Amino acid sequence: MNIIVCIKQVPDVDDIKWTKENNLDRNNMLSKINPYDEYALNAAIKIKSRFKEAKVTVISMGPKQAQDVLNFALAKGANRAILLSDKAFAGSDTLATSKILAAAIKKYCPDFSLILTGQMAVDGDTQQVPLSLAQLLEIPEITNITEICNADKNVAIVSVKTDLKIDIYEINTPCLLALKTECEENYIPKIDDYIRAQNIPIEEYDINDIGINKEDVGVIGSPTMVYRAFRPEIHKDTKEIKEDITKKILDFLLKVDNK
Amino acid sequence: MKKILVYGELNSKDNTIEKVTFELLNKARRLSSEAKELKQDEEYIVEVVFCASYLVDDEINKAFKAGANRVVLIKDSVFDTFYSTVYADAFLEYFDKNPSDIILFPATPKGRLIAPRVTVQLDTGLVADCIEAEFVLKNDKLLFAPTRPTFGSELMATILSKKAPYCATIRKGVFKTDFSNAKTGEFVEYTPISYHEDRIKLIKTILNKDKNDVDFTNAKVVLCGGYGLYSNKSDEYYKKLKKLAKITDSFFGVTRKVVDFNLAEQKYQIGQTGSTVQAKLYVAFGVSGAIQHIQGMKNSKTIVAINTDENADIFKYSDYKIVADAKKVIDDLLIYFDIKI
Q1: B2-190 and B216-340 in the same fold
Q2: Who among B154, B156, B201 is closest to A16 (CB)?
Q3: Do A24 and B155 touch (CB under 8 A)?
Q4: What is the dihedral of CA B99, B100, B104, B105, to 10 degrees?
Q5: CATH code of the domain containing A151
Q6: What are the Cα distances from residue A174, in Å, to A79, A135, A199?
Q7: Which of B114, B150, B259 to mutate to test the interface with A (most CBs of A within 10 A)?
Q8: Using CB atoms, which residue from B117, B250, B317 is nearest to A135?
Q9: Mind telling me how many Å the CA of A20 is from chain B's nearest CA?
Q10: How far apart (Å, rounded) are the C-alpha atoms in residues B103 and B332?
Q11: pLDDT tens for each residue of chain B, 341 residues long
């Protein structure tokens, strides 16, 4: 049973730094595994622990530095790591990214039962890649998963808990499952784990290896492009209330219907 | 004539039109006038497309009033259960025969599933989770330019697409509804020929006991507590604010940090990862004004903020600034109501 986990290296959004020109100062920002992808990785490793023959392959598209998150995933217990890296991939939007991932999966691990992903990435937050990937691979998906109850080679049972209800789905493999919350214990790798992981080489593939057209990737292959980026500005005429605070708030509260 | 298509969403219980659809229709109608102002020969009609087993006349009429020139029902009983592949395939089959230039999807759980499946098959772009959309005139061409927050809303990005149809998912609650469109238009039923069989089965639904009975959609007054109400390692002031909300027939809300520290339930959270509110009156008690929170409340009509820190970011977004201890203000307000009761 082969399980693929797609992971992304993201800047730490709690540590955003800006350049003078109001651009993101990526060089001075910390990078880490997208937390939602870590939920997916933890869930995959949990499934693996139940089946002797199960294997977890982690796959990431990104610059060479993305090796860091792949090594981290190997230390956590993944069996195989694939890095899709090429200058031509830079600037890929969700469609181009999904095409690269789909092409690589078809070539390097076509016999998968499950693809696990995070629901979203904290940097882009489009939530579009899992769905686009599922569409390109022509497999069904379940998203916003809060727990993988069971999964084997043929079928997965997952639950999606919302504020109102908990839906439990059965889905035939191959399929894609996108996780929204932490549902397994988060194992923090120890030094021994990193040493063990060192014995597993990261497989690296570029545009020619994968065999995808230049027209389908990167800036050229991305139908969307940023026209302008700006930090939100506000122009409010704020009035300060200094006296009779309680009374003035009461006035607001009691007169709201007449406004 | 060009066309803006709104992907319509219905309430799964009774097939009434969800408010977000009316919001998108009004926006589409405004985009249409905007296009005409920028470039006189550009005219867009507004079409709304629903996938459902039925749609009653009242709802169809509401869609016209909200701005649609054409209402389409892709009709099949298969839509009584939601599967993204089934919906997307049927929609695409209709779309292939009736193309449009722009598609607006709601950024709802369902819309987020259908939109990427549709756009991947059309091999076109999709701009996610937009909070604004406009036309820009560039080299005498009118371009659809939606704007979305990114990097935890620290940055806004306006995105253009190279290829038609130009597609975006739009957040609910960011545009207003308007039912003043006097003209009715054409109603069309379309029966899909084929759709994908799905390999998913819903085997059980359990009601969530700690269910969310909080729906901010129609909230007129919101009293929101920030981390500044936290004192003496207790949730005392969140409880007091909740009580105040109850007495004044308002909604109680909190910021993410309050939820993260387990001081209130997630269902009360307002902001990017919580609910979006468009209240007539929004009062922030001890809210610092993180941008993620601002995204969820800034479209409220009157914003009043109370904070001890006179430089708190929340004041930049407020109509009324009160530099005071929000805890004391809550106590004073409660005293007032206690006396009155």
Answers
A1: yes
A2: B154
A3: yes
A4: -10
A5: 3.40.50.620
A6: 19, 12, 29
A7: B150
A8: B117
A9: 14
A10: 51
A11: 899 999 999 998 899 999 999 999 999 999 999 999 998 888 899 999 999 999 999 999 999 999 999 999 999 999 998 888 899 999 999 999 999 999 999 999 899 999 999 999 999 999 999 999 999 998 889 999 999 988 766 688 999 999 999 999 999 888 999 999 888 899 999 999 876 666 788 888 888 776 557 888 888 999 999 999 998 889 999 999 999 999 999 999 999 889 888 899 888 999 877 888 989 999 999 999 988 898 889 889 999 999 999 999 899 999 999 999 999 999 999 998 875 43
Domain ranges of chain B: 2-190, 216-340
Give me the CATH code for the B216-340 domain, please: 3.40.50.1220
User: What CATH number does the domain located at B2-190 have?
Assistant: 3.40.50.620
**B128: chain A residues, CB-CB within 8 Å:** 94, 124-128
Residue A19 lies in a domain: yes
Residue A15 lies in a domain: yes
Domain that holds residue A216: 2-225
Secondary structure of A94-106 as H, E, C letters: HHHHHHHHHHHHH
What is the distance in angstroms between the Cα of B185 and the nearest Cα belonging to chain A? Answer: 33
Contacts of A229 in chain B (CB under 8 A): 155-158
Of A134, A141, A236, the CB nearest to B317: A236
Instruction: Compute the distance between CA of residue B224 and CA of residue B2 in angstroms, rounded to an integer.
Output: 44
Give domain status of residue A194, yes or no.
Answer: yes
Kindly provide the ipTM of the predicted complex, given to two decimals. 0.84
Q: Specify whether the CB–CB gap between A155 and A173 falls below 8 A.
A: yes
Residue A126 in any domain: the answer is yes
Number of domains in chain A: 1
